[in-house]
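Let us practice reading a record.
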Amino acid sequence: MGPSREAREAEAQGALTPAMFHVLLALAEEEMHGYAILKEVERRTAGKMRLSAGTLYGIIKRLNEEGWIAESSRRPAEAFDDERRRYYRLTEVGRQVAAAEARRLEELLEMARSKKLLRRLQTA
């Protein structure tokens, strides 16, 4: 099954900022609360992208409105939980949007390589 209509529309509009894409990537494997998302983005980018809380929660609001993420009803064990935290998960449409963006970026990399701006990675 191919991408949904929403994913195709998002791809056509170029709707994702790099920060939005990083938030979707952070949620691709597991549900997280906001602070964990901030730390995951920072860790994965080796500190090159640091989202402020205001930026993150603006992104979360937009992704939630688009239906790409949703607030999770599941909670961790009480000993590991803070009732003030809200946990978020990637929706199926959000996964399709993130995959469409990854394909778009892959195509851009191929174009850059064809123009000899980047070398192909050597694999062992």
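A brief commentary: The longest helix spans residues 92-114.
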